[in-house]
């Protein structure tokens, strides 16, 4: 029983060199207390997938909608749909940056987790930022050009390091 | 910049000896991969506080309501109210147990976090469980007696170790 024995079981990994800064121009943000090497696992976050209907009827009308991620599901008829998921971890705390993105993420729909990794070396004191992609619910102040289409962004976020 | 300099800033602590078991009678649950000594910080979770009105109009009608915690707020007129908060971390993954509770939690309304600590030594392979208190949204199968009133429970969860 010491270690997970089922392939679906999920070892929780979290980089220990992080803190939340409360007062920033973007609100709360996650920062590095030590240099974090490229490819380091930053956080493994379980997710809570919301129903398509409850999302449309309710969640979209609340402040929580700014925090949810697109999440692929297959309905009872075998049709692929895009639902929304609440990320139960630092994935809901990372701010957005197109120019200074230093964290990428990868969904695991089978195990209901998202894994966040350092895209490059992250120096001490730097904020950890992701790209929200097409789920951006505000004007992107630091985008130098139009953001890439969702599929291209997905591929970028799901970059394989090895 | 190496360490938080503002008293409001929050060092993120997470016990590394944890995994999520996907298939249990209660659904997903958090388990210990090593013995965790009493008083160990299990997780420091940022929270997202929902508005009282949006909670009543929307969140209460969704599956998310089973995951939210009571959260004390003071409104613009200085009146104390109980809002709901989404816990962005393992606090949303711990199952409930009255008899086998081994984790306690403490809210920090100023810094918008909840800290979870081991109530006693937690042996390898044991599930980590909290008490949901008055926010229990289902019948408590393992309660030997009526659950304690919310205030008493609050005091228990906010137990001071030292």
Features:
Beta-clip-like, Protein methyltransferase (chains A, B), 2 helices, 162 residues, homodimer, globular, 5-stranded antiparallel beta sheet, two-stranded antiparallel ribbon, 31% strand, methyltransferase (chains A, B)
Describe it for me?
Chains A, B: Keywords: Methyltransferase, Transferase. Chains A, B: This is Protein methyltransferase. 2 copies of one chain form a homodimer. The first copy, chain A, has 162 residues and is mainly beta. The first copy, chain A, has one domain (18-161): Beta-clip-like (Beta Complex). Chain A has 2 helices and 10 strands; from the N terminus they run E-E-E-E-H-E-E-E-E-E-E-H. Chain A has helices at 52-57, 150-157, and strands spanning 10-11, 18-21, 29-32, 41-50, 69-74, 80-87, 95-96, 103-108, 113-118, 129-130. In chain A, the strands form 3 sheets. The first copy, chain A, has a 5-stranded antiparallel beta sheet. A two-stranded antiparallel ribbon of chain A has the order 2-3. Chain A has a two-stranded parallel ribbon with strand order 7-10. The longest helix of chain A is centred in the last third of the chain and has 8 residues, at 150-157. Chain A starts with 9 loop residues before the first strand and ends in a 5-residue tail after the last helix. Residues 144-148 of chain A have low confidence and may be disordered. At the A-B interface, strand 1, strand 2 and strand 4 of A face strand 1, strand 2 and strand 4 of B. Strand 1 (10-11) of chain A pairs antiparallel with strand 2 (18-21) of chain B.
CATH-derived topology of chain A: Beta-clip-like
Structural class of chain A: mainly beta
- How many H/I helical runs of chain A? 2
- What gyration radius of chain A follows from the Cα positions, in whole Å? 16 Å
Name of the CATH homologous superfamily of chain A = SET domain
Beta percentage of chain A is: 25-35%
Oligomer: homodimer
Helix content, binned percent of chain A: under 10%
- What's the SSE pattern of chain A? EEEEHEEEEEEH
**Quick check: average pLDDT of chain A?**
84
At CATH level 2, the architecture of chain A is Beta Complex
Major pleated sheet of chain A: 5 strands, antiparallel
The shape of chain A, in one word, is globular
Number of strands of chain A: 10
Distance between the termini of chain A: 31 Å
Query: Could you tell me which chain pair has the largest interface and how many residues each side has?
Result: A-B, 48 and 48 residues
- The first-level CATH class of chain A is given as Mainly Beta
Low-confidence stretches of chain A: 144-148
Walk across the major sheet of chain A and give the strand order. Answer: 5-6-4-9-8
Q: How many domains in all of chain A?
A: 1
């Amino acid at each position: 029983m010491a270690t997970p024995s089922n392939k679906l079981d999920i070892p929780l990994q979290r980089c220990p060199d992080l803190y939340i800064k409360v007062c920033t121009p973007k609100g709360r943000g996650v920062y590095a207390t030590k240099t974090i090497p490229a490819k380091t696992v930053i956080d493994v976050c379980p997710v809570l997938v919301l129903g398509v209907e409850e999302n449309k009827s309710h969640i979209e009308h609340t402040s929580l909608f700014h925090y949810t991620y697109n999440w692929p599901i297959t309905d009872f008829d075998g049709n692929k749909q895009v639902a929304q998921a609440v990320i139960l971890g630092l994935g809901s705390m990372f701010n957005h940056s197109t120019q200074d993105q230093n964290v990428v993420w990868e969904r695991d729909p089978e195990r209901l987790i998202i894994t966040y990794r350092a895209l490059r070396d992250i120096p001490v004191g730097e904020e950890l930022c992701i790209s929200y992609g097409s789920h951006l619910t505000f004007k992107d102040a630091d985008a130098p050009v139009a953001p890439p289409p969702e599929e291209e962004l997905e591929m970028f976020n799901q970059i394989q390091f090895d």
